[in-house]
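To whoever is on call:

I kicked off a structure prediction for a single chain this morning and the downstream step that reads the tokens threw a length-mismatch warning. I double-checked the sequence; it's 374 residues and nothing unusual in it as far as I can see. Pasting both halves so you can look.
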Amino acid sequence: MNPALPLEDAFAGPFRLESLGGPDPLEERQERWRNKLSDAIYGPLPPAPAELEVEVSPLGGSSAARIEITMRSANGTRALTVDAALWRPESREDAPLIAGLGFAGPAGILSGPDFPLDRQARIHCQPELGVENGRLHDLLRGTESHRWPVEMLTARGYAVMVSCYGSWAPDDPDEIVRHGACPFVGLDTGAISLWAWAIQRLLDAAERLGGIDMGQVAVAGHSRLGKAALWAAANDTRISAVLANNSGCAGAAPAAHAVGETLAGMAAAFPHWIRPQSRATALDQHHLVACTAPRKVYVASAEQDLWADPVGTYIALVAASDVWPESCSWPSVEEMWAGKRHALHASLGHHLRPGGHELLPYDWQRFLDFLART
């Protein structure tokens, strides 16, 4: 286990986050925040498709079912078909749902060859996995089972639905305009908005499948997919809880805290993630977190993951908590870094995990304990 970095390495010094108060009702402030964040950073969320069809077939040798989601545009001339997988708990009929996008999707969770590989998907892949050009490959099968420990989740009574993010919107500035949601919706927007739109379509599919308690829907994501999960939750009240892990810049980490990735750096390295020519705004990421109130929000960080700014993430959550009706008492940053490591309230939670940029069963254990709180 890596030793903890000194706090001074993770802290940018004093900074100020704009107050979330105001004379208007919270719902009106949230609507303004969403519009401003859409205009300045993410780009608009596409509308729901005119038609959505769902087909389910079992996967040999697995408890998962393959779901084929086909969407059609309003005039019927464009269609988009994307695969997902669903795991159901044996113990419950109307099970709560945890849904999200994975980097390799169900093929990265399942070790067998049964789930098909989307040859048009483009993903971000660690070079050491031996896969070139971001294409899904048999080498990736089972490599993300630790990020989505479905046996742990179903044992706790949850249904789990996962799809490959690169099938919905290829994680490539050139391919994104050729395949997936972007040409389907015909909208100039960022990939984070397209991935958030994809999460919404997973919920549409869950509604049609039945056997899911749509009153208990959590969405989860790691890294850039944590950004998408937060943006989806900010825009969709069907989501009762969001679990954002190491979400960093344009996720839960505020731009005002100059540690790790910045919006300018993101625009240079991943120009397709956010709105082209992003606009300056007085808003920051605690506004994004607050758009989900009064529903549940859990943000997680890792002490070695300074690129995702663990200190700023925690401070943004604390600042956002002002709009929740519950009274929250939070440890200081110094206490969190010195060993407190977690803070839980009925609707808000956080932990600081040892190690670096990863989603691990440790994180899921904390998430599940949080979801179990009433």
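Update from on-call: the warning came from a stale cache, not from the record. Cleared it. Sanity check on the structure: The CA atoms of residues 256 and 266 lie 15 Å apart.
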